[in-house]
Specification:
Elements lengths: L1 H29 L3 E2 L2 E4 L3 E5 L10 E10 L4 E27 L4 E25 L5 E11 L6 E6 L2 E3 L1
Amino acid sequence: MKKRILSMVCSLLILSSLLLGSFTDVEASDEMKKVDGSYLTMDETSTGYSSDRLTKGKHMMDGECSITKAGKNRIYAYGATTGNHTVDYIAVIVYVERYHPETDRWGHVDAWIEECENDFLASTAKTLTVDTGYYYRVRADHFAEKAPDPMEETYSVTNGIWI
């Protein structure tokens, strides 16, 4: 009888520790700070994609952007817009931003544009030297146009990564 009770108590302890452990993990992920659509992470890289409901137009297939640590105080930023087929005009504008904790906002670091005509892809990348001790993210605006239809546009954004 003692063995049976001891076995049940041990089983209950193991089960309760498993349950409490899983609840702790959920709480930790819920506490991750999110600012203007981007989580502040300690990841080495982050990629953002345009939302399906905002994309999948007649001419635009999708848009994406990414940020990757590229050394002690360097980041690699990338953006691309993909069309469903060759269009008259396709473009991507890439913005690199730094998180300012004192204002709880993202601030401008750099921006550039890649434009193409009679193509189905516009992509661009740049390696930047940045100040350490901050979160950085990339966001991008994506455009595609084929006459006589109106221009289609969408956006993508990465999470913030700590540099």
